[in-house]
Design brief:
Layout (H helix, E strand, L loop, with lengths): L14 H22 L6 H13 L3 H21 L7 H11 L6 H9 L6 H16 L5 H11 L6
Helix pairs in contact: 1-2, 1-3, 4-6, 6-7
Length: 156
């Protein structure tokens, strides 16, 4: 029997149990983070996952669960329809394309593909055009001031 000092509790957990519990906790956190952070998981799946993950204490089951969740959510993302650029994004791109420093070739290329742009691609194109227009003004704070003076921040 171990000698226990007064005021101290006897530790009954072995190092292996502590390590296993840490692995279980880590896997549970990964699964919850994956499902809660996904736009492709339904609310019913999220609720069921939260309840079930808390009960599961088997590392191999949790590892398989995580792997299957990653695969399923990736497949759902591939099958999901593309979210196209909003009217506001298209309007801002057109305003930026009308700037004098934008070449006719680039303007034509972007305008031909404007209806196929996704939200992310449109945001990237707006960033590129803003940077391209600001470049002749020297970049940095001076460039952002020049872009605002020219009136390209969010209006034609």
């Amino acid at each position: 029997m171990k000698n226990v000092m007064p005021g101290q509790a006897a530790s009954t957990a072995s190092p292996q149990t502590t390590t296993k519990q840490a692995q279980v906790t880590g896997l549970q956190a990964l699964i919850l983070e994956l499902v809660l952070g996904s736009a492709y998981a339904t609310q019913a799946e999220i609720d069921r996952t939260i309840a079930s993950v808390a009960k599961c204490q088997n590392t191999s089951t949790l590892a398989k669960w995580y792997r299957n969740s990653v695969i399923e959510l990736a497949e759902r993302e591939e099958r999901a329809p593309a979210t196209y650029a909003t009217g506001e994004q298209k309007q801002e791109i057109i305003c930026l394309l009308n700037h004098a420093v934008v070449t006719r070739r680039h303007k034509t290329r972007v305008l031909l593909g404007i209806n196929r742009l996704t939200k992310d691609a449109a945001a990237l194109e707006i960033t590129r055009l803003t940077a391209y227009i600001a470049a002749p003004f020297g970049g940095g704070e001076m460039a952002s001031t020049a872009v605002e003076l020219v009136g390209l921040s969010h209006a034609c």
